[in-house]
Amino acid sequence: MAELERIGGSTWFRLGDRDLATHLYRTQRLAEGAALHEVTAEIARARGVGVHVVPMSDDAVRTRLVLAEDADGVLAGTEVAFQHYFVRLRHAVAVRSVRFDGAAAASPAPGVLDAIGDAEVVVVSPSNPVVSIGPILAVPGVRNALAARRDQVVAVSPIVAGAALKGPADRLLAELGYESSAVGVARLLAEWVGTLVIDEQDAHLKDAVESEGLRAVVAPTIMSSPEVAASLATVVLDAAR
C-alpha cells in the first residue's frame, strides 16, 4: 500500500498485505476462468478453514447507493459503489436508496440452496439487514428457500436499544424509511425468519416483536467475550430445536 501511494495510485481503500494477497489471488483465478465458489474453496482450504464456505452467487452482484446529500465533492443524487460509501465516505452521509446491480440475473452458487434446505438450523448473524443480508436475499431463489425453512431460521437482531453496535445499520434503516429497532428488524425479516433473538435491553419489545409474526427470544446478544458469544450460540441453536 505504501508503494502504491508512492507511485501515485489510489489508496483510500486501506488494506493490509494479507488482504491484498487474497484479492490478487482471487482476481487471478477468476481471470483464468475459475468460478467464485471454486476460488472460495481454495482459499478456505489453504487457510485451514474446516467448515464449508460458499458465496451467495458466482455471478457479479454490486451494491449501489444513491446519496441523499453532498459529500466530499460528490453531489446529492449521485449513485456510488458500496465501498465508496462505506470506506471513502466513512458511511457518514445519508442515503436515498440502495440497489443490487446484477442480482435479478444472478443464480445461487452451487451448494447454496442445498445448504439452506439441509441445515438443521439456519442462523442469520446480527449483520446489517440492508447491505449485508439484503444482497443475499436479492439473488433469485434464496428468499423462497429460506421461507420454506422458516421454522428453523433464527436471526439475531443487529439493533440493540435502537442503535447498531457497529456500522451504519441504524442510520440506513431510518434513512430508507424503516424503524430502527428490534421491532423494525422483525418487520423486515418476518417473511422468512421464524425466531428473532433480541437483547435484554429490548426485553420490553418482546410482545411487539411477536406481533409481527415471529417468536422472540430474549438473551444477552452483545458478544463481549468468548463465553458470552458461546452462550448466545447455544441460545440461537436451541431456539430452532
Molecular structure report:
The protein has 241 residues and is α/β, with parallel strands linked by helices. The protein folds into 3 domains: 2-46, no CATH class; 62-104, no CATH class; 109-240, CofD-like domains (Rossmann fold, 3-Layer(aba) Sandwich), CATH 3.40.50.10680. The chain is 38% helix and 15% strand. The protein has 11 helices and 9 strands. The chain has helices at 2-6, 17-31, 36-46, 82-88, 112-118, 134-138, 142-148, 169-175, 182-189, 206-210, 226-240, and strands at residues 62-67, 79-81, 95-101, 122-124, 153-156, 159-160, 163-164, 195-198, 215-218. It has a 4-stranded parallel beta sheet, with helices on both faces. The protein has a 3-stranded antiparallel beta sheet with strand order 2-1-3. Helix 2 crosses helix 3 and helix 5 (112-118) runs parallel beside helix 7 (142-148).
Write the layout of secondary structure elements.
Elements: H1 2-6, H2 17-31, H3 36-46, E1 62-67, E2 79-81, H4 82-88, E3 95-101, H5 112-118, E4 122-124, H6 134-138, H7 142-148, E5 153-156, E6 159-160, E7 163-164, H8 169-175, H9 182-189, E8 195-198, H10 206-210, E9 215-218, H11 226-240
Parallel strand pairs: 4-5, 5-8, 8-9
Antiparallel strand pairs: 1-2, 1-3, 6-7
